[in-house]
Amino acid sequence: MLGLNKKDSKFLIIVILLTLSTPFVMQPFSEASALSQFNGGYPDLMQRVAIFGIFAIGFNILFGLTGYLSFGHAAFLGVGSYSAVWMFKLLSMNIIPGIVLAVIMSGIFALLIGYVSLRRSGIYFSILTLAFAQMSYNLAYSVLTPITNGETGLQVRPSDVRLLDGANAPDYPNLFGWTMSTSYKWEVWGHLFTFNVGFYVCAFIAICAFYLSLRIFRSPFGLMLRAVKSNQNRMSYTGLNPRPYTLAAFVISGMYAGLAGGLLASMDPLAGAERMQWTVGGEVVVMTILGGAGTLLGPVLGAGAIKYLENIFSKINENILHGWFDFLPEGMENFFVWLFARFTGDGWHLTLGLLFMMVVIFLPGGLMEGADRIRKRFGRKSDDNSPSNPAE
Amino acid sequence: MDQIILQLLNGLDKGSAYALIALGLTLIFGTLGVVNFAHGALFMIGSFCAVTLQKILKISQISIDETKVDFLGNALKVKTPYVEIWFGEATGQMIIDWSVPLAIIFSIPIMLFIGWAMERGLIKHFYNRPHADQILVTFGLAIVMQEIIKQFFGANPIPTPAPDFFKGSFDFGQFIGFEVNKIIYPYWRIIYFIFSAIIISGVFSFLRFTTFGMVVRAGMVDRETVGLLGINIDKRFTIMFGVAASVAGLAGVMYAPINSPNFHMGMDFLVLSFVVVVVGGMGSLPGAVLAGFMLGILESFASMNEIKSILPGIDQIIIYLVAIIILLTRPRGLMGKKGVMED
Fold first, then answer.
1. Given 3.30.70, 2.40.160, 2.60.40, 1.10.3470, which CATH number is that of B2-60+97-329?
2. Which residues on chain A place their C-beta less than 8 Å from a C-beta of chain B?
3. First CA to last CA across chain A, in angstroms?
4. Which residues of B touch A346 (CB under 8 A)?
5. For the segment A269-324, what is each residue's pLDDT rounded down to a tens digit?
6. CB-CB neighbors (< 8 A) of B324 in chain A
7. ipTM, interface predicted TM-score of the complex
8. C-alpha distance from B319 to closest chain A C-alpha (Å)
9. Are B294 and B15 in contact (CB under 8 A)?
10. Are B243 and B111 in contact (CB under 8 A)?
């Protein structure tokens, strides 16, 4: 199917089904139950999972395949957001021109930055990308204010030109009249499922992005990228120049990041410079590593896990904790509440940092390696060609 | 002319901070071959050592003064710091006032311990892993450290004033023959510069003139041979890690009055100090110091109004721009050695 072998087709179908059923998967508990706070099936979170999934898939094409660790991908996310919002302002609230321009602009940026940065490798490459990202961030805040609107961030206004939009076109980002924020709710057996237009747009694009990365992983081009990772010298000795391949990978992953940025702006038509800060670039690194760099599914899982946990952990406050430890004697209850409050709510980043360190130390292959180990433990021999294996 | 001298001076104190952090980073990289993304966090912890000492000194005994009332009509609570009770009022207040310089002594054992614990507990296991893994694990550690500090001290910057003795400014222009009030420079920044010069020369002479330093330098060149000669080089490198951590910590302690410590200051400095290290040349100590001062001075020159009017925004990006140009024209940095990090 679609140029994939049988196994990959099956894999792709599973991924498609999983993606489309996200509103069910992330909403496992009924509204009335005490566990309903662990439900993640609301539009904003689902959109973010899909968008950051795209971001991480793209990042993985660069880091997972070639081993070049970029800390500057946030710059492309920001460029994508800004271009999309400009298209909303100038052309139309239809998201298609915005997303197309976001991908093109970030592609151009990635070409420029990649051309310069890829002259060096290893830590130097990381520092160069970091420097470029910080430069774009600082410029977006200061000199480029006419384009980026500085600290306030770029917003759409009723007074915008919007050349292509007719008189009664919706004032919100839409796809041929379907507003992104429209949701259909379905209540069944006490469960509340939300089907959001924006999420399905993101999900559709995410599936396409996943399919593309699957094809890249299986293509001769993907093989070349792996060759760059395992031994660049040997590759040069065979008469191949690694530079064009790494540059192509860099541009592709930059375009993925721009696409994610454009989608972020489409879901919420606002673009701010803080999206370009290098900590955002660090976040996608964390997602990819957590899920498993170099695997196909890993980055998506990592993005999903981090966004989901972020939402859940930030919501838990001391009152909820008091409810949990109610059964303990008072002193112990207070102690446990104090202890857990360090890691939840505002302390979510602490949990994230610890989790990330644990993964890097004990499970360098990320969640996918963990899954593999469990599978081996239970005796099922893992197949070497299985797509979920860490690619090396 | 006076503007140029003023910017030169302004650049010196920022450059001193960059140079100190970059020196520690290079020391770790040169000895252990580890890229330490948590070094900015060590700088931040140093700053918070000053904050902690200030808080400890201000721990007060609360007594109730019946003769006065506060605005609610209750008896007024009078806080008397214990140091004032123990040492008398004048001495006590002086001790509190001098909390930042005192924090230098307070922070050295703490930073040495943190450095030792970091190396033995975590970094040790990453010698044989790829550089990317080292970057990632120390990046994670940096997040954890800054979040722990945030849990204890909150997210707001905590003002940590310098001693009264150093408040005010020094009229440097008058000193070298300009008009009065042309070149004014705060005393504390001069102190910071002198302090960092002392630390830097201290580290250099430690490496240059002591037997310990000689062994460490030998180990930087060829670790295996030094090991074969029967010297426990690992132990010395661990100590060097502690030294590097305390250099970063001291830079942080002294920086506290210039910039009120907050939990993410480490990350802000980290990016810059990595740029400094790369510009100076990975593994070269003089390079790190030189690049630190150079970039600090360039940064303050770029923020001059005359230059900003020609090239708007240049002050925001000058450091990164210089780094990019240097990395592309001199791939090893200013004084980088051959064969270091060239994979």
1. 1.10.3470
2. 67, 69, 116, 119-124, 126-128, 130-132, 134-135, 138-139, 141-144, 278-279, 282, 285-286, 289, 342, 346-347, 349-350, 352-354, 356-357, 360-361, 364
3. 25
4. 150
5. 878 788 887 778 888 888 888 888 888 888 888 888 888 888 888 877 777 777 77
6. 116, 128, 131-132
7. 0.79
8. 9
9. yes
10. no
